[in-house]
Design brief:
By secondary structure, this protein is an all-alpha fold. It has a domain of 40 residues. The chain is 75% helix and 0% strand.
Length: 77
């Protein structure tokens, strides 16, 4: 029952979001375009350490998943 209530609430929120208009762009954004190159420079200047830590974590997760698969295959034949 709680799952059904949660699903209905999710559908209601999504339906409400579909009927809302998008906000108008603010004047503070300026007239300059913020493209992919500007975003990547800003992102890597501010979050380079977080980016590197996440990439190492993902590599470790892939290696661990492969080790689990290898051990599972060894036990079953």
């Amino acid at each position: 029952m709680p799952g059904i209530v949660g699903f209905v609430l999710l559908l209601a929120v999504l339906a409400h979001a579909l009927w809302q208009d998008l906000p108008a762009p603010s004047a503070a954004a300026g007239e300059t375009a913020f493209g992919v190159q500007q975003f990547s420079i800003a992102f890597l200047n501010e979050y380079w350490l977080h980016f590197e830590l996440v990439s190492v974590l993902l590599v470790v997760a892939v290696v661990a998943a492969l080790a689990v698969i290898k051990v599972g295959r060894r036990d079953h034949g």
